[in-house]
Write a structure and sequence with these properties.
The complex is a heterodimer of chains A (349) and B (262). Chain A is built from 16 helices and no strands. With 349 residues, chain A is mainly α. Chain B has a single domain (31-52, 72-234), classed as 3-Layer(aba) Sandwich (Rossmann fold), CATH 3.40.50.300. In chain B, helix 4 crosses helix 5. Chain B starts with a strand and ends with a strand. The chains are: A mainly alpha (349), B alpha/beta (262).
Chain lengths: 349, 262
């Protein structure tokens, strides 16, 4: 009765074998960038010396440079890039929208505001456990507020406008704290949260952020089946047994933990969550569940590469990595807007 | 397997403070294609969603003898296949991955790692709907008719004894309307309970075993097509008059003209 479609051949090959190489390839790329990142700086070290120093051999000075200065920085770039990217991929899966990203929702800005506020008020010092917790609370509040304003089946336009409002408010709050800062040094310290940087981080910073980031990555990864089912809309997903409300809350919590912990040690680094998932989507047949891990690896690679680039770009004063990701990210965001023009002007995603 | 059965007792649904469905009592059993019809805003979709367990409701809905609310999420998902209106897909997923989502309630998390049994069921669902040739095609490049059949294959792959379909033939060409209704009728013949919301009175009159007519949030008539689709009933609920034909002993009904409102 409906045999005519049987004759038509599939437009995609059944199971492309090269896809099996995606994860190993990305892992290799991240590993390579990690080693390069350890080698780049005022004292340039070739990969051989880096690996020797990591293994506890080679010159004592090299070992100190690698272990004390560059390793924390590289670990943070790896972890923060991963969690920002997976957070973006998860939000996009939840909202079924390629333009959803933590930074467009004001999450990092709100985390920064919470961090700055608690420091200005003298509740936290910059190396205490209270700081990531405050930042996580700030990020959670912003994403929760945003989804509450925008509602369940919010259109793209509504989400982005609300995100703009939230991030502007948080940004204004941070600048106000700078404005009211008792001395220029305090103002400089606050400016750090706006710029976003991985310079001069220690293992203490790694210890502060890594547990939260690890939990966030795990929490988001466990929701992957739900994101795939949501491709059919909330009703169909719920009818398949996906606990949609719980999925929303878990996603917000996971994103907030990851972004909050990242911001607590690096300030705001934007657009990784937008770019990485977009780059990986064609390689996973647009599957929102299979996207999570490749996106995370791609995010690690992007942030490692950006952090290497800021050390190589000749400039009179240091360019912060958060500034670089924004300079690359904003044009990319514009490009995505152009691509999504149709759904934007239609109002609904 | 006992024939599936849904019993509704005094079911009421309020959305945003407004009563959409009020006081619906119904008994539906397997082996029948039930057409749920009624004018726009009659509460058909809302009632269907309540049956699927997607909306909080007053009254009782019992699925195979057990209270709907007491079923856990997975168990309900295996018992009831729900096909929403509009056939939307938000990502350009390959068609076969969409069909594989039907196995989600049975614990399939990854469409690339299917047991032979799950693979067979997906294959069969795509065969029945004539969509095997579309397997690798991206959902966003499918035509309306193709997407409707992929979505139908997805819900068939659940292998649920109860199938609730919301306007499965809307915006399809006449051929695909017939194809989809025929598939639903076959499912009912296999012992399933199939409830389909539709605006197509001609198809409902011809294909359905039973018609439930809703108006203003209530069931105003329920029974065999010939009884429910009487001239009086059509005039009262739809405000239309139908043309009736006899095609070799098979009655056909065509909505024909607007009746003056009573």
């Amino acid at each position: 009765m409906v045999a005519e479609t049987e004759a038509r051949s599939a437009s995609l090959p059944e199971r492309t074998p090269w896809r099996a190489w995606l994860l190993p390839g990305l892992a290799l790329l991240v590993g390579g960038l990690f080693v390069i990142s350890l080698g780049v700086g005022p004292v340039a070290l070739p990969p051989g010396d880096v690996i020797a120093a990591l293994a506890g051999r080679g010159e004592a000075a090299h070992r100190i440079i690698i272990w004390e200065i560059r390793l924390p920085r590289a670990i943070l770039a790896l972890a923060i890039g991963a969690v920002l990217a997976m957070g973006g991929a998860a939000l996009q899966g939840l909202l079924r929208n390629p333009l959803a990203a933590p930074s467009l929702f004001g999450a990092p800005q709100s985390a920064a505001l919470a961090a700055v506020a608690t420091i200005s008020l003298g509740i936290n010092d910059a190396l205490g456990w209270g700081l990531p917790l405050a930042a996580i609370a700030g990020a959670f509040a912003s994403v929760f507020l945003l989804l509450a304003i925008a509602g369940r089946n919010a259109g793209l336009l509504l989400l982005i406008l609300s995100g703009l409002a939230v991030s502007s408010l948080a940004g204004a709050g941070t600048v106000l704290a700078m404005n009211l800062a008792p001395n220029p040094f305090a103002a400089l310290e606050i400016a750090f949260w706006l710029l976003g940087s991985l310079e001069d981080r220690s293992m203490r910073h790694v210890m502060l952020a890594l547990p939260f980031i690890t939990v966030a990555l795990l929490l988001l990864w466990l929701q992957r089946g739900g994101y795939r089912a949501l491709a059919l809309g909330e009703d169909a997903a719920a009818s398949l047994g996906v606990p949609v409300e719980r999925l929303r809350l878990t996603t917000i919590l996971g994103v907030a933990m990851g972004v909050g912990a990242a911001v607590a040690v690096s300030g705001t680094i934007a657009f990784i969550g937008l770019i990485a998932p977009h780059l990986m989507r064609p390689f996973v047949r647009h599957d929102p569940a299979h996207l999570l891990v490749p996106a995370a690896l791609c995010g690690s690679a992007l942030l490692l590469a950006a952090d290497i680039a800021v050390r190589l770009i000749p400039a009179t004063s240091d360019i912060k990595v958060g500034v670089l990701t924004s300079i690359i990210g904003v044009p990319f965001f514009l490009y995505l807007i152009v691509r999504e023009r149709r759904s934007l002007s239609g109002g609904m995603a | 397997m006992n024939p599936p059965r849904i019993v509704l007792e005094d079911v009421a649904v309020r959305l945003a403070g407004r009563g959409i469905v009020g006081g619906v009592s119904l008994e539906l059993s397997g082996g029948a294609l039930v057409a749920l019809i009624g004018p726009n805003g009659a509460g058909k979709t809302t009632l269907l969603k309540a049956m699927a367990g997607l909306l909080p409701h007053g009254g009782r809905i019992a699925i195979n003898g057990s209270e709907g609310a007491s079923l856990d999420r997975r168990a309900r998902a295996r018992l009831i296949g729900y096909l929403p209106q509009g056939h939307q897909v938000h990502w350009p997923l390959p068609a076969e991955d969409i069909v594989a989502l039907g196995r989600f309630p049975h614990g399939v998390v990854d469409p690339r790692r299917l047991s032979p049994e799950d693979g067979r069921i997906i294959h069969e669902a795509m065969r029945v709907t004539g969509t095997r040739g579309l397997a690798g095609q991206s959902a966003t490049t499918l035509s309306g008719g193709e997407r409707a059949r992929i979505m139908l294959a997805r819900v068939l792959a659940v292998e649920a004894p109860i199938l609730l379909a919301d306007e499965p033939t809307a915006s399809l060409d006449p051929r695909h309307q017939l194809v989809v209704m025929e598939i639903l009728r076959q499912q009912a013949r296999q012992g399933r309970l199939v409830v389909a919301v539709t605006h197509d009175l001609t198809l409902a009159a011809r294909m359905a075993d039973r018609i439930v007519l809703m108006d203003g949030g209530m069931v105003v008539a329920s029974g065999a097509p010939a009884d429910v689709l009487s001239d009086r009933q059509l005039a009262e609920t739809y405000g239309i008059r139908a043309l009736r034909l006899d095609h070799g002993g098979e009655p056909a009904l065509i909505p024909w003209q607007v009746e003056a409102q009573p």
